[in-house]
Design brief:
- With 649 residues, this protein is an alpha+beta fold.
- Helices cover 39% and strands 22% of the residues.
- It has 21 helices and 25 strands.
- Helix 9 runs antiparallel to helix 13.
């Protein structure tokens, strides 16, 4: 093949036990691209080097750029060839593979199709003196510079995957959006699905959700709240009953209109929330004061057909949540519950996810549609300068009771309407945690929610006492598990210790324990923290206490660091000029406000731009002093309170 023959030979020798002439026989230019792609894939997988998948279509399954394994990459190369689309590595110009296939390839014609397409490519290469083949290889080094480096240095071993092959392509501080898209996939939290805005939650993510679910479910049961389940579907008549409520959700409601090939007589909505699903039955079940309070919760999924910027965990068309719906005889009881549940949400974020939040009340413009008032816990992502609504607890007042005729006979024999609340927390919590704590190595998980708190890695080198090291690892796992610590050992023998370090760092495991020959001899383990990479030796006699102390310290350190970063982004302003300057610097802004809805709408209008408009985030319960004569930053009218403002997700 001319100038690039040495590259081909190098790949062939690196990835095939057979003679390279069998891999690349003479006069087989029609198979050239397949052979090279397979070679690259095998080399990349054995080296532990991810490849960048470039895709001109920017589909849901394959975003514009993502890191994939060699096998995935090779398969995608083949299908791009077959489907007449751009090859997923960045050539200087497109390769045209001929007419688009009129039918999907079958097992019978697949080989013929690929051979024909590659023959055309090989002919183009020959006509251009192999320049385009050289471009392929040059650009492959853009795809994986690490792989190129390892091949040239000759440091790759076929039988063992090497260190540092799982790095992220993007840096958190430089391209946050691409970094987030990478880390949720490479950290094995989600996988993309073939419907836009829907994501597969992998076991690593579900385990985190289950930890929060276990805590919250136990706490609400202490409050005498019972779990239930209502159907996913809502009739259009019931959904339309509360007009203010449905107007807030109307653009997001998904409808079922067909059964098989038959049109439904009446379309059926898929619940965006369950007020209108549940409250007709509240009316049926509540007759007298002895039926109150009625306090229900359900763990379920909801569908909101988001069309703008779907983001895993943060904004998706289907998500998991818990939603509580309660009814009381008095407003005082309902108000008390609103704050009790909000405190549980604060605990989820601060005590489990190590994310600082601000408890406060939403403005009239931002409150839950159809509700009396809304309280929330608000988080902040310093890298993007955006606030994020962490969870909400709503007082619905008597509006829904009026619409659904939820009445009861009080102790005096008089007819009264109930006071209602609803409150919810979603898998968005996981996305907030990733955004706040993640770094350029991948996820950083707080120990309280980490599916795996400790990973033990044996360091077995030549002439090492392998079985002695393995036995020590097993003893460590047994001791930690008996102490209630979630721990596993990684005994895989086809990966080097360095590759394993990178793998578990990507997945965010809080603590890594290494056991090598020196540790075995000294009856100790080496512990490495994920949050700051600090290393320390722990005697085996103090193992459990040392690990527990370290995990507690990691949990607190993550919260303290996140709080410090968040607080550094809070900016107090008094004037519109100060407000716009702070907004441009991606700050979370605390400003005096006159509490008028029209003024808030005007702030949105005046700040609308490419980055999105600013809005009120919440009015904190913990109010700073408001000196007499303080004016609203936006209107110049007398200020009534301090409110947080900023851009938000």
């Amino acid at each position: 093949m001319g100038a690039d023959e040495s590259y081909v030979t190098m790949y062939a020798k690196s990835c095939c036990d057979d003679d390279e002439d069998q891999l690349l026989p003479e006069n087989s230019t029609d198979q050239f691209m397949i052979r090279v792609s397979v070679s690259i894939a095998v080399v990349a997988d054995r080296a532990g080097c991810p490849l960048v998948c470039f895709n001109s279509r920017n589909s849901v399954l394959y975003p514009r750029q993502r890191l994939v394994s060699g096998t995935e990459w090779c398969n995608y190369v083949m299908w791009n060839i077959i489907e007449n689309t751009q090859v997923p590595f960045p050539l200087e110009e497109d390769i045209h593979w001929g007419p688009t296939l009129s039918t999907n390839p079958t097992s019978e014609n697949l080989s013929e199709i690929i051979s024909g397409r590659l023959a055309q490519f090989a002919g183009d290469c020959a006509a251009n003196q192999d320049i385009r083949c050289m471009e392929v290889y040059i650009n492959l080094f853009k795809v994986s510079p690490l792989l190129h480096h390892r091949l040239l240095e000759g440091t790759m071993k076929r039988e063992v995957k090497c260190e540092a092959g799982r790095g992220l392509l993007y840096r958190k501080d430089e391209n946050f959006g691409e970094w987030y898209s990478e880390v949720v996939v490479d950290g094995e939290m989600i996988e993309y699905y073939d419907i836009s805005g829907c994501y597969i939650l992998r076991p690593w993510a579900m385990s985190i959700w289950e930890v929060m679910q276990t805590f919250f479910d136990a706490e609400i049961k202490k409050m005498k709240i019972k779990n239930c389940y209502f159907p996913l579907f809502v009739s259009s008549g019931v959904l339309q009953k509360e007009k203010d409520h449905i107007e807030g959700f109307a653009p997001e409601v998904a409808w079922v209109t067909k059964s098989g090939e038959s049109e439904l007589e009446m379309p059926i909505a898929i619940r965006p929330t369950s007020e209108t699903v549940m409250y007709p039955y509240f009316s049926k079940w509540i007759r007298g004061h002895r039926d109150l309070p009625l306090r229900l919760n359900q763990w379920c999924n909801v569908v909101r057909w988001e069309f703008s910027n779907p983001t895993p965990f943060i904004r998706s068309r289907e998500f998991l949540w818990q939603e509580g719906h309660t009814a009381f005889a008095t407003k005082k009881e309902a108000d008390t519950e609103v704050l009790e549940v909000l405190e549980l949400y604060r605990r989820i974020y601060e005590e489990f996810l190590a994310v600082p939040v601000i408890k406060g009340k939403k403005s009239e413009h931002e409150k839950f549609a159809g509700g009396l008032y809304t309280t929330s816990v608000e988080a902040f992502v310093p890298n993007t300068g955006r606030g994020i609504e962490g969870a909400t607890s709503h007082s619905l007042g008597q509006n829904f009771a009026k619409m659904f005729e939820i009445n009861f006979e009080n102790e005096k024999g008089e007819k009264s309407m109930v006071w209602q609340n609803s409150w919810a927390c979603t898998t968005r919590t996981i996305g907030v945690m990733i955004m706040v704590h993640g770094d350029d190595k991948g996820l950083v998980l707080p120990p309280k929610v980490a599916p795996l708190q400790v990973v033990v890695i044996p360091e077995c080198y030549e002439d090492a006492n392998i079985w002695g090291i393995f036995d020590a690892c097993a003893d460590v796992i047994k001791s930690l598990e008996e102490a209630g610590i979630r721990a596993e050992a990684d005994y895989r023998d086809n990966y080097s210790p360095g590759w394993k370090y990178s793998h578990w760092e990507m997945k965010g495991v809080p603590l890594r324990i290494e056991i090598g020959p020196k540790d075995l001899a000294n009856n100790q383990v080496r512990a490495v923290r994920r949050d700051n990479s600090a290393k320390s030796d722990i005697p085996m006699a103090d193992l459990v206490k040392g690990v527990k102390d370290m995990l507690n310290n990691i949990q607190q350190s993550l919260f303290d660091a996140a709080t410090q970063k968040r607080d550094a982004c809070i900016h107090v302003v008094h004037t519109w000029e100060e407000f716009t300057e702070a907004l441009g610097e991606k700050k979370m802004i605390l400003a005096p406000w006159c509490d008028e809805e029209e003024v808030e709408k005007d702030v949105k209008t005046r700040t609308n731009g490419e980055m999105g408009a600013a809005k009120s985030l919440c009015t904190p319960f913990d109010q700073p002093a408001l000196p007499e004569g303080t004016l609203c930053f936006a209107s110049g009218k007398p200020a009534k309170k301090w409110t947080y403002w900023g851009r938000s997700y």
